Amino acid sequence: MAERLSFYDEIGRNKRNSILLFFVVFALTVFLGYVIGMVYDPSLSLLFVVVAAVLAILQIVNSYYNGDKIVLLSTGAREAPYEKYRFLHNCVEGMAIAAGVPKPKIYVIESKEMNAFATGRDPNHSSIAVTTGLLDNLNRQELEGVIGHEMSHVKNYDIRFALLVAVLVGLIAIVSNIFMRSMWFGGGRSDRDRGNGGAILIIVGVVLAIVAPIIVRLVQLAISRQREFLADASGAELTRYPPGLAAALEKISKINKSDMPVSEAVSHLFFVDPVHTFIDKLTSTHPPIQERIKRLKAM
Amino acid sequence: MISILMGILIAVAVIIVAVFVYFYNSIVVLGNRIDNAWSQIDVQLKKRADLVPNLVETVKGYAKHEKTVFAAVTEARSEWMKATTPADKAKAGNVLAGALKSVFAVAENYPELKASENFKVLQEELSGIENKIAYSRQFYNDAILSYNNTITTIPGIWFAGIMGKTEKKIYLEIKPVEREVVKVSF
């Protein structure tokens, strides 16, 4: 019973955090609109605020309903037909039954690296993607271990919050980037009557461009590490066989050598860290694989 | 003074009603989950039975002389189709599982059969279904466990008494070996 309660705790926490993130992004966007409005023409600042609010709502709604598709597209995942991937389909369906959730849509990523991720807004609208490397190297118990881990992300609504983080915070990075570029162009042409305003804009842009990626990183960090241990534990509870997942992690630590071509904005969704850049080494979104294996073996 | 007393009385009544609604609903939801879990098992058992004709057809093509094995598995299938009560179904299902196992054991002696694409697909399908049966039983048992936990502990036990709900028996033992009934070897 305690374990069930904790699942509900997780679900509640994820739903609350998702709503909180909505408001933070909404407030940030409106504030940005206000700053830009003040800089361009203070008498029009209300208009800018309204436009920013409408855009923010549109973007939030869009990422809630279509974020999973954006993430799947960005990672190059394509739908896995049943006839070709029976083994994968059977494993996923088995774990869905064990978790008591509907079977997610199944995708495959062409890559030699072994990895997987789950995304979606709730268990009724979820997808699981695995790399071909994972399929080629794991037996049934091991694959079920990995899928069980992903299935518990689906069941406890981790996918919803992680998805919103990926799309919305990724958006901040893009906006700050566009902002910076428009500064380079705008700077030469039109600073005849807004010398002061232009300077403020540039400062805001620069600050955003520097701060946004750090925020992305911090939020990813905050949500990731503990969740991975939790998903390992509840995934192993679905299969009732922790050694399967431990063996899969063992293989992954031996076989994975290079980086996957995916954006940092979605790296926290993956089963193991898909990229190993410099900043990543300093602030990894994932706990070390050896530590995860150790905990599984202690179960 | 009286209005304060009335207020307290109303507040207590509201809390009691809210608690009752909460427990009534969770007991009903947990009960429904058991029924749902049972039908999940049924779906998978049916899929396994549906696999039999196709399997027999495929194996016959390579191993014509293993008549007793085919007869046994076909018989087990029709027994399962006839079973109606959960207990009968569980029993017939076990017989069918055994018969299927012997079909795959026979296949070991026919390398051409083992190499055929059709047979490999059937083998994967069967291992998949056996796994799903095991997981649906696990979910069923878990559902019964959390139902029983709710209605036998305080305060659930009081509401269960009012609603006339009694503990359900777990009668599906999961043998760990069932997970690996068929070893897929390529």
Features:
heterodimer, A: 299 residues, alpha+beta, four-stranded mixed beta sheet, elongated, B: 186 residues, mainly alpha, de novo design (two linked rop proteins)
Mean pLDDT of chain A: 81
Radius of gyration of chain A: 21 Å
Structural class of chain A: alpha+beta
Backbone structural class of chain B:
mainly alpha
Order of helices and strands of chain B: HHHHHH
Global geometry of chain B? rod-shaped
**Proportion of residues in extended strands of chain A:** 5-15%
Instruction: List segments of chain B where confidence is low: pLDDT < 50 over at least 5 consecutive residues.
Output: 176-186
Highest CATH level, the class of chain B: Mainly Alpha
Return the string of H and E elements of chain A: HHEHEEEHHHHHHH
Strand content of chain B: under 5%
Helix content of chain B: over 70%
Give the tally of β-strands of chain B: 0
- Cα-to-Cα separation, first versus last residue of chain A: 18 Å
Greatest interface and its residue counts? A-B, 18 and 22 residues
Q: Could you say which overall geometry of chain A the principal axes of the C-alpha atoms support?
A: elongated
CATH architecture of chain B: Up-down Bundle
By CATH, the topology of chain B is: de novo design (two linked rop proteins)
Q: What kind of sheet is the major sheet of chain A?
A: 4 strands, mixed
> DSSP helix count of chain B?
6
Structure description:
The complex is a heterodimer of chains A (299) and B (186). Chain A has 299 residues and is α+β, with helices and mostly antiparallel strands. Chain A has one domain. In chain A, 70% of the residues lie in helices and 7% in strands. Chain A contains ten helices and four strands; from the N terminus they run ααβαβββααααααα. Chain A has helices at residues 2-40, 45-74, 86-99, 132-137, 140-155, 158-189, 195-239, 242-255, 278-282, 289-297; strands at 77-79, 105-109, 116-122, 125-131. Chain A has a four-stranded mixed beta sheet with strand order 1-2-4-3, with helices on both faces. Chain A is elongated and about 65 Å long. Chain B is an all-alpha fold and 186 residues long. Chain B is built from six helices and no strands. The radius of gyration of chain B is 25 Å and the shape is rod-shaped. Chain B has a single domain, classed as Up-down Bundle (de novo design (two linked rop proteins)). Chain B has helices spanning 2-60, 67-82, 86-107, 111-115, 117-152, 156-163. Residues 176-186 of chain B have low confidence and may be disordered. The interface between A and B is medium-sized, with 18 and 22 residues.
